[in-house]
Amino acid sequence: MGTAVAPRLTTGHIGLNVAELDRSVLFYRDVLGFEELATGADGDRRWAFLGSAGELVLTLWQQSAGKFAVDRPGLHHLSFGVSSLDQVRQVEAALTERAVTFLYDGVVAHGEGVGSGGIFFADPDGIRLEVFAPSGAESAPAPSGAAPTCGFF
Q1: pLDDT one-digit tens code per residue, 109-143
Q2: Same domain as 87, residue 34
Q3: CB 125 within 8 A of CB 24
Q4: Which end of the chain has fewer CB atoms at under 10 Å, N or C?
Q5: 78: closest CA among 26, 23, 118, 19?
Q6: Could you give the angle at the alpha carbon of 105 between the alpha carbons of 50 and 99, nearest 5°?
Q7: Beta pairing partners, 5
Q8: Which residues form the VOC domain (predicted)?
Q9: Is there a domain that residue 23 lies in?
């Protein structure tokens, strides 16, 4: 009996539980630029599919209450990549206009001397998010020192 080799897996889409669907759709659409691909409801159970260039990225499910709990097993944070630090700063400006609280002060590197880096913040339900670029952050601070910036926050 041979060892099974798993195929290379990729992320299909991310599903998030949200407390107020309309508020979350506005945030992910108007602030982060996702397209609203579809919405639906089954009684009071509502959902929205969001994407980019017609491709599904996020599904939002209105089936929770309260705020995201960072002290429970589950999602640590959700990271979105862009191609340049200038694009990270564009997202940062849009978030700043809407008074979103950042978890670090501005753009930070993923580690000391590392080129990749970005911004860290939370959505309206407290779900921790990151927008990063693969390079350009070499001179940005690394608030966690040798530990990955995206790890313990």
Answers
A1: 998 888 999 999 999 999 999 999 999 999 898 88
A2: no
A3: yes
A4: N
A5: 118
A6: 50
A7: none
A8: 10-134
A9: yes
CATH number at residue 31: 3.10.180.10
Range of the domain at 138: 76-146
**Nearest Cα to 134, choosing from 106, 115, 151, 113?**
115
CB 62 within 8 A of CB 20: yes
Name the DSSP class of 31.
I
How far is the C-alpha of 39 from the C-alpha of 16, rounded, in Å? 14
For β-strands 55-62 and 14-18, DSSP reports them as parallel
Alpha carbons within 13 angstroms on the beta-carbon side of residue 57 total 17
Q: Specify whether 91 is located in the same domain as 140.
A: yes
| Alpha carbons within 13 A on the beta-carbon side of 107 | 25
Rounded alpha-carbon distances, angstroms, from residue 113 to 73, 88, 152? 31, 18, 18
Give the residue among 61, 76, 74, 55 at the shortest CA–CA distance from 10. 55
Residues 95 and 80: beta-carbon distance below 8 Å: no
Q: 140: which DSSP letter?
A: S
Tokens representing residue 21 in the block? 């669907």
pLDDT in tens, 75-100: 999 999 999 999 999 999 999 999 99
Tokens 């996020």, residue located: 58
